[in-house]
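Worked example 3 (structure in, sequence out).
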């Protein structure tokens, strides 16, 4: 029996989900939202159904910081299948343009990978959620249409060959937001003169969660049978997603003024355009920003607790 909206809980925090193969990000989100019986939930950037791995899901007030995770660096393990291209850029699409895979030394592969490290321009794939004239690109692609896409500047921080066998390259990737691993693999395949598509993709990290403990849907379902206390113990604090942002600690009086929308003054401000704000040592209030006259203004406050 489905739960009525009025019966849902105000629960706040971030679930570090190990998304399973075959589910879209939204399908995974809805399952977790149902398990937690949460009033509000959102994900922090889509993972393809083919991809598994880390999908941070924000519940309740944590949805206010989801954009900061969306903008953060991502880390992946992927397998590039050489010798053909795919209509979708991955194993789910129809294969075409089959070519022999040349004999490649590790040095030759390394020379190609080096070309894709650092700041590069990448053309987004047709099978993506980007819009052209108000329509999603994947909608056009499913109709057999292809439209011109503007290249976008991205950064590849890490691109390492971790294994190879039978025309398959195992790669470890660290990249900026907006990077499409399918496009990266396709471009590497063209640089190797044999084509390539993604045969396996797993997201291992979303900054600042670089080596996180993740929860599978099966584990969450088991915990749900034990009650909400067991489920809620899986949540990471909202401010953990913002650990790269400098913190400022306020006394009770200034914290109260800030939560009422007033600007407050502190002795010295870190050199930053954004701050984590706390009352005392551990009560997270939300985010603030500096004003031109050296005060702190509330930017995005957390309204629970």
């Amino acid at each position: 029996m489905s739960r009525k909206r009025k019966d849902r809980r105000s629960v706040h925090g971030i679930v570090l989900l190990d998304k399973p193969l075959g589910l879209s990000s939204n399908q995974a989100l809805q399952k977790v939202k149902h398990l937690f019986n949460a009033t509000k939930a959102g994900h922090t950037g889509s993972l393809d159904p083919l991809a598994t791995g880390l999908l941070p899901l924000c519940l309740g007030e944590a949805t206010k910081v989801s954009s900061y995770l969306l903008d953060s660096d991502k880390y992946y393990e992927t397998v590039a299948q050489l010798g053909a291209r795919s209509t979708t850029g991955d194993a789910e699409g129809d294969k075409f343009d089959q070519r022999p895979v040349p004999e490649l030394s590790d040095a030759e592969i390394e020379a190609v990978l080096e070309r894709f490290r650092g700041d590069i321009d990448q053309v987004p794939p047709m099978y993506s959620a980007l819009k052209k004239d108000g329509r999603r690109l994947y909608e056009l692609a499913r109709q057999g249409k292809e439209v011109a896409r503007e290249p976008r500047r991205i950064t590849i921080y890490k691109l390492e060959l971790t294994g190879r066998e039978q025309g398959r390259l195992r790669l470890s990737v660290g990249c900026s937001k907006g990077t499409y691993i399918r496009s990266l693999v396709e471009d590497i395949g063209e640089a190797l003169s044999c084509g390539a598509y993604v045969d396996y993709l797993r997201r291992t990290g979303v900054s600042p969660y670089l080596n996180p403990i993740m929860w599978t849907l099966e584990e969450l379902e088991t915990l749900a049978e034990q009650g909400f206390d067991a489920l809620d113990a899986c949540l990471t604090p909202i401010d953990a997603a913002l650990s790269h942002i400098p913190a400022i600690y306020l006394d009770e009086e200034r914290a109260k003024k800030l939560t009422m929308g007033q600007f407050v003054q502190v002795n010295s401000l870190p050199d930053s355009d954004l701050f984590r704000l706390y009352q005392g040592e551990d009560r997270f209030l939300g985010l603030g920003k500096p004003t031109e006259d050296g005060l702190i203004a509330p930017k995005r406050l957390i309204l629970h607790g």
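Notes: The longest strand covers residues 152-165. The mean pLDDT is 90.
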